[in-house]
Design goal:
Beta-Lactamase, 6-stranded antiparallel β-sheet, 6 helices, 24% helix, PAS fold
Length: 152
């Protein structure tokens, strides 16, 4: 299993020349980083809408193109989660709230877990991914979550 370490010590002020819409909130500051990342990662807001996702994240999570899911609720944007039973049923609602990106929002702390993602193409194998999420804070409140994924 891949080893992931995550440490966010402080948020630096935006650099000179940063567009004003990205200066106003913590999510805006992370959005560009996530969008251009080589690693599979995802940024959602407190309402679970996708703020940014890397191309590698879209590929791993079978979401299509990043522009297709930006602004949509995470679970309405094409993410299909399955349970770990042999029947591979859709994840029950009470279990969905426990996936790392959503758990980081509700708990305000780090969250880690495995997800089984349904393949976009019929007949293709499903993916199992390790997800580690951290809440993104703005003015002391949880404004969203940042998640990094690794294929298992």
């Amino acid at each position: 299993m891949a080893h992931v370490e995550l440490s966010l010590s402080e948020v630096f002020p935006p650099a000179a020349g940063t567009p004003p819409e990205h200066e106003s909130d913590a999510l805006g500051r992370w959005s560009s980083t996530v969008s251009h990342a080589d690693e599979p990662c995802l940024l959602i807001d407190a309402l679970t809408r996708v703020v940014a996702v890397s191309a590698a994240g879209c590929e791993l999570l079978c979401l299509g193109a990043p522009d297709d899911v930006i602004g949509l609720p995470l679970l309405d944007g094409g993410l299909r989660l399955l349970d770990f039973t042999a029947n591979r049923c859709e994840l029950a609602d009470q279990e969905v709230d426990k996936i790392p990106p959503l758990l980081a929002l509700s708990s305000g702390g780090l969250a880690r877990g495995l997800l089984r993602v349904q393949a976009a193409t019929a007949g293709a194998p499903d993916s199992t991914v390790d997800a580690i999420s951290t809440p993104v804070l703005a003015d002391g409140a949880v404004a969203g979550s940042l998640t990094f994924f690794s294929e298992v």
